[in-house]
């Protein structure tokens, strides 16, 4: 379980204040208008920025004093961040060891991950010889090959065309469900949220304005701000 307990952060005199609880195995879409604080919330959870007050807990243990690499999260961003001089095999392997000193079992995990995302035939290719969608699949494999119980996704597929984006969302949902992974995913697209998420958290004005089951995303929601957001989206 991930808990943000009165987490406060100030940036250029703007106060962000977050309370949120995510249960194990939930796929949560983090939504809201631009500038509302979605990426700030994700950065606080990941450890890229530190809160001024409050606590962030995973399974009851505080992680606010831990560095990003010490936190139990795998992360995937819009930029795939593949290393151009490394093969697909090695780019995925970096998720297991930064020096690529992999055991035989870890090498097998890399091959299995590549197969699951559909890039097994490209293991020895460099990123420049892959399409944009294939590169993002490699980044996804590097993300989930790591033995972490939670994924943090910051609009990783927003630059892809609608058909490919839907394929990737379906793949993430399938992999996360099979493994019992908890997912927190930032998205601007209501359709993406409904395609992948079991729950949502709506951020507005620097705080979590509403959260709940994904089926509660409707123009009739009790939060006027959320209802207006849903109405505008569609």
Automatic annotation (TrEMBL):
GO CC list: membrane
Pfam families registered for this protein in UniProt: ABC_tran
Residues annotated as domain ABC transporter: 2-230
Gene3D superfamilies with a match to the protein in the record: P-loop containing nucleotide triphosphate hydrolases
Gene Ontology biological-process annotations: thiamine transmembrane transport
Identification of the protein by name: Thiamine ABC transporter ATP-binding protein
Keyword Lyase: no
InterPro entries xref list: AAA+_ATPase (IPR003593), ABC_SmlMolc_Importer (IPR050093), ABC_transporter-like_ATP-bd (IPR003439), ABC_transporter-like_CS (IPR017871), P-loop_NTPase (IPR027417), Thiamine_ABC_ThiQ (IPR005968)
UniProt-listed PANTHER family: SPERMIDINE/PUTRESCINE IMPORT ATP-BINDING PROTEIN POTA, THIAMINE IMPORT ATP-BINDING PROTEIN THIQ
Any one GO MF annotation of this record: ATPase-coupled transmembrane transporter activity
Keywords from the UniProt entry: ATP-binding, Cell inner membrane, Cell membrane, Membrane, Nucleotide-binding, Translocase, Transport
Native source organism of the sequence: Vibrio owensii
């Amino acid at each position: 379980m991930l808990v943000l307990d009165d987490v406060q952060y100030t940036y250029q005199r703007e106060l962000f204040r977050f309370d949120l609880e995510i249960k194990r195995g939930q796929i949560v879409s983090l939504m809201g208008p631009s500038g509302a604080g979605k990426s700030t919330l994700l950065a606080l959870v990941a450890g890229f920025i530190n809160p001024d007050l409050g606590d962030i807990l995973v399974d009851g243990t505080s992680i606010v004093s831990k560095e990003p690499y010490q936190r139990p999260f795998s992360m995937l961003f819009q930029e795939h961040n593949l290393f151009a001089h490394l093969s697909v095999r090695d780019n995925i392997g970096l998720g297991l060891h930064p020096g690529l000193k992999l055991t035989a079992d870890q090498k097998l995990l890399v091959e299995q991950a590549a197969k699951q995302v559909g890039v097994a035939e490209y293991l020895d290719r460099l990123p420049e010889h892959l399409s944009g969608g294939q590169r993002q699949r490699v980044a996804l494999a590097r993300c989930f090959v790591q033995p972490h119980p939670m994924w943090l996704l910051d609009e990783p597929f927003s630059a892809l065309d609608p058909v490919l984006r839907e394929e990737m969302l379906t793949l993430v949902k399938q992999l996360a469900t099979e493994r019992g992974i908890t997912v927190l995913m930032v998205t601007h697209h209501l359709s993406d949220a409904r395609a992948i998420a079991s729950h949502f958290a709506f951020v507005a004005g620097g705080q979590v304005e509403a959260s709940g089951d994904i089926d509660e995303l409707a123009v009739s929601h009790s939060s006027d701000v959320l209802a207006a957001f849903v109405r505008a989206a569609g």
